[in-house]
Amino acid sequence: MSDTMDIADYLARGGRLTNPANVPTRYRAELMRMMASFVDSELAGAAGFADVINAGPGIKERIAAAKIVLEKTDNADKVLRLMGEFGANTARYANHHPWTDRLPRDTAPGRTRSAHDMRLSVLNYPLDGWVDAVVMNFCTGHAVAVQLADMVQVSYQPLAEALRDVAPVEAHHTELAEEGLARLMTQGESDAIAASLAYWQPRVAAIFGDPPAERLAQMKAWGLRHRTAEEMRTDWEARLAAGMERCGVPR
Amino acid sequence: MARFHQLAVTDVRKTIRDAVVVTLKPENGADFDFVQGQYLTFRRDFDGTEVRRSYSICAGLDDGVLQVGIKKVEGGAFSTWANEDLAPGMVLEAMEPMGSFHTPLEPEKAKSYLGFAGGSGVTPVLSILKTVLAREPNSHFTLVYANRGVNTIMFREELEDLKNLYMGRLTVIHILESDAQDIDLFTGRVDAEKCAALFTHWIDIDSVDTAFICGPEPMMLGIAAALKDHGLSEDQIKFELFASAQPGRLKRKEGAATGAKAAKATEATITMDGAARTFAMDKDQTILDAALENALDAPYACKAGVCSTCKCKVLEGEVEMVANHALEDYEVARGYVLSCQSFPVTDRVVVDYDQ
């Protein structure tokens, strides 16, 4: 069985790459970008939530927020370790950027990433208290679920496997958000929730973006992307609507 | 972070005509504890060209040794050298074991594993089957092992010994491409069709907990398709693509720097995706920023010299890299730079993102 095939054909037919040695250069660049974006988002997300722990109105809420900080950092570590196999300096990476940095609260929704890291754009906006943090976690959590569903099919097997471990942990964070949201509704916070939803929905919607058509086609052919941003955003909107209904939040 | 360590070669043994098993001993106390199915990445300099190759560990966790199998590949510098010149007493450089071609060991469970190996793809599968048979006393392993002919079967005798040692728990099905066997089913290639036939008559696919596949690309695709057709889910199938797929390595570094002038502008030529673009850029701008400004879709992530996403190779001219936390010394020596940290020094620079 010495016969081989072109690596692009192999990938186009659903083949998997399994270690840094069999990854072609351009594929490597796209893969590194995906992994960096994931790690930066988890680290920035965890950093943002760390400040929220103290805003938790009760012990249960504080535990939930602390758990989210711990587990998002752990998720970042799972993927950062894979970047390390490609030569990234993992020890420095975790500290190279002030992950708590945010834009002013009134910055318009947009897709621009911070110039110095690759976090999802929504993580550039600051949280404003406990209710706001719960709503942000709720909106973003459902978006992350949709994006992870696409990413776990990635053709780089070690990343697919790491994300398969990450997905249920992230899903639980969204469950915590829904629990919190339902409780806040019973506590008469519906106006604050509505205001936060109006703030976060367009900002989360903006993270669904496609690269230029040619690059998207290439990424699909390599098995790094599967669905378009439009398909994923539609999916997210449906999930969000269902979640709001579960929590008793009027639309 | 991945670092290279020195390993002393303590034994080199031929398994078949063109494959060796190399036994290694880490020097300077480096941590080479491995998980079954992992691989080592070696590097060696061949006439000024750095070659890196990954080879799977073939030893089981309880063998008490670190061993890799290296099959000679036509035209392969490292594998040819390992097969012809490598001898005990020499020192190799390798990174610590890596890879996730394994599942957790659960001694209390009775699991059914199915392994597929093509040629030298057997090395990690051998490590896995030796380990699970020893550590999970109630588990079974079936190996479907594809080779050209009887004389190219690596570890043939060792597999026979293991069958006797683990009586009834290890099944080996040899599929030979060119040597006819008593049963037609065992002749030919292992593709989706062959798998379907095996699942009908020889392998109880419904009882399989995990399948491991290691071999060349077409074989992996065919087997994976057959496994999914027969109800296995993604997370039940583990892949390891073996060494033949490793892309070509570094070419020789071209002419070194010329004398720098104090001019402000540099003419930069940047190659990406096979196409080259030339434009003028400031000397106080990074190569990456200039590329992005000129609508080139250059890869980057951290912009802090940490992640190595923006790595490119300087083919002509000279740049100054102000920070580097990702590239190793030998990569820098070969002309690689982090473009997010590199400013042009000469009036002309040529860089390539494709190498």
Describe the structure.
The complex is a heterodimer of chains A (251) and B (355). The mean pLDDT of chain A is 91. Chain A contains nine helices and no strands. Chain A is mainly alpha-helical. Chain A has one domain (21-105, 113-247): Ferritin, core subunit, four-helix bundle (Ferritin, Up-down Bundle), CATH 1.20.1260. Chain A is 64% helix and 0% strand. In chain A, helix 5 runs antiparallel to helix 6 (157-186). With 355 residues, chain B is an alpha/beta fold. Chain B has three domains: 4-95, Translation factors (Elongation Factor Tu (Ef-tu), domain 3), CATH 2.40.30; 112-243, Rossmann fold, CATH 3.40.50; 265-352, Roll (Ubiquitin-like (UB roll)), CATH 3.10.20.30. Chain B contains seven helices and 18 strands. Chain B has helices spanning 77-84, 122-135, 156-165, 192-201, 217-229, 287-293, 329-333, and strands at 4-16, 19-26, 39-46, 49-56, 66-71, 91-95, 112-118, 140-147, 170-176, 210-215, 237-241, 265-272, 275-282, 311-316, 319-321, 336-338, 342-344, 348-352.
